[in-house]
Design goal:
Elements (H helix, E strand, L loop, with lengths): L3 H6 L1 H10 L6 H37 L5 H33 L19 E6 L12 H8 L2 E2 H7 L6 E2 L1 H21 L3 E2 L5 E2 L1 H6 L11 E2 L5 E2 L4 H5 L6 E3 L5 E10 L18 E11 L4 H19 L3 E5 L11 E9 L4 E10 L3 H6 L2 E3 L6 E3 L1 E9 H11 L7 E2 L13 E2 L5
Parallel strand pairs: 4-9, 8-14
Antiparallel strand pairs: 1-11, 2-3, 5-7, 6-7, 9-10, 10-16, 11-12, 12-13, 13-16, 14-15, 17-18
Helix pairs in contact: 3-4, 5-12, 7-12
Length: 426
């Protein structure tokens, strides 16, 4: 969400920012809607002022014993006119909010301009790509051969884009989640939260999922939404609050199920666990003062990268181009892990600085010490990491010629000391 006053004062800059994202100009239309809202509001106020004066005349006429019927008729007409003006104001305000809520955030100046992921810019790489004396398999080939990754039964139970993990692979997924959560909470200073997985419309609106992306979400019959990421409830912890600047930064982490209909991803990654309707993820959310969000994004990205370093999984970090960024982001780093089975890097974490975009929707503000004016907080979110995709990366990077999989050393305490996953462990 944007400050319409800023748009009025900076229409060219607003449209230039949208152009970087390939979005058509909106400033003139928004300013016209706002002018309609403001003029209706002013007219309603003028009518109220006139009626107040008429009310005084009625009192004076009655005190003198004079007939006040004509003035009473004018008051009645005034009430009707004010109701019309207020209705027009409410409609214009609603129209303005509807358009504003569907416009993506403006990118920071250092974000590369481009149409899609081909224009992303590599920032750094870490680790050496593994080499094998055999043709490395993809994760679903390994998992199915181990007898612990069952897509057929999951399809019978639920449908496409689900998986049933069992035995050591089920435990490996749990181990990864616990390891990540402990790292983010114990070493990186995030407060662990166990949030609801069902939220209301206002919560989804606050982080930008609604109204634009309703088709990509799951909704219950009684109106609750299943969260697509823990970013939604974690960020909304500060919704509607005014906090002192000493309260900031706030850092939250959670491990939750995430649910996405993948309506916009038809035909993509139909095999395996890359793109599922239900998956688990450890999420990181930061709430900061405006001037601290740039540094916080670098910190958060480092926290995501550290998970892969501890697991000794090669990765690269890229800055997303304007055409590849998410709706609410001003700047995003994607961390991409190496998958030998695909012979490619694939996204495993996306860390974004949303500026005050979400805070305006949530009305989340802070007050600096000794100051009366309020400022909107800045919000950031990032995966720390996507657990299913990390499991994929472990399977593919630690696979052996016989189809067994080595357990990374850092995970062995979570696996009861298990060092190798083989078919016998299913």
């Amino acid at each position: 969400m944007f400050d319409i006053k800023w748009i009025r004062e900076n229409p060219d800059a607003f449209d230039a920012g949208l152009a970087k994202r390939g979005v058509e100009s909106h400033a003139a239309m928004l300013i016209a809607l706002d002018e309609k809202r403001r003029s209706s509001q002013a007219r309603a106020q003028d009518i109220q002022t006139e009626r107040n004066a008429l009310s005084k005349q009625i009192g004076m006429a009655k005190a003198k014993g004079e007939d006040a019927s004509e003035i009473l008729a004018l008051v009645s007409q005034s009430k009707q006119a004010q109701a019309v003006a207020e209705s027009e104001q409410a409609q214009a305000a609603s129209d303005l909010d509807l358009v504003l809520s569907a416009i993506p955030n403006l990118p920071f100046d250092d974000v590369p301009v481009g149409k899609d992921e081909s224009d992303n810019v590599e920032v750094r790489t870490w680790g050496e790509l593994p080499s094998y004396e055999f043709q490395p398999k993809e994760h679903f080939e390994l998992g199915e051969a181990l007898g612990m990754m069952d897509f057929e039964t999951a399809a019978k139970l639920s449908g496409a884009r689900f998986v049933l993990l069992s035995g050591a692979l089920a435990r490996l997924e749990r181990a990864l989640g616990n390891f990540m959560l402990n790292l983010q909470a114990d070493e990186h200073g995030y407060t662990e939260v166990n949030p609801p997985a069902l939220v209301n419309d206002a919560t989804m609106y606050g982080t930008g999922q609604l109204p634009k992306f309703g088709e990509d979400l799951f909704k219950t019959e009684d109106g609750y939404w299943l969260i697509p990421t823990a970013e939604v409830p974690l960020t909304n912890i500060v919704a509607g609050h005014i906090v002192d600047d000493s309260y900031l930064p706030r850092r939250y982490t959670a491990m939750t199920w995430c649910f996405r209909s993948e309506a916009g991803a038809a035909g993509k990654d139909t095999r395996g666990m890359i793109r599922q309707h239900q998956f688990s993820k450890v999420e990181m959310v930061s709430v900061t003062k405006a001037e601290e969000s740039d540094a916080e994004l670098e910190r958060m990205t480092g926290c995501a990268e550290e998970v892969l370093k501890r697991l000794n999984l090669p990765f690269r970090t890229v800055m997303l181009a304007t055409g590849d960024m998410g709706f609410g982001a001003r700047k995003t780093y994607d961390v991409e892990v190496w998958l030998p089975g695909q012979n490619a890097f694939r996204e495993i974490s996306s860390c974004s600085n949303c500026g005050d975009f979400q805070a305006r929707r949530m009305k989340a503000r802070y007050r600096e010490k000794g100051q009366k004016d309020l400022k909107f907080v800045h919000t950031l979110n990032g995966s720390g990491l996507a657990i299913g995709r990390t499991l994929i990366a472990v399977l593919e990077n630690y696979q052996q010629a016989d189809g067994s999989v080595l357990v990374p050393e850092v995970l062995r305490p979570y696996m009861g000391g298990l060092e190798i996953i083989s078919a016998a462990d299913g």
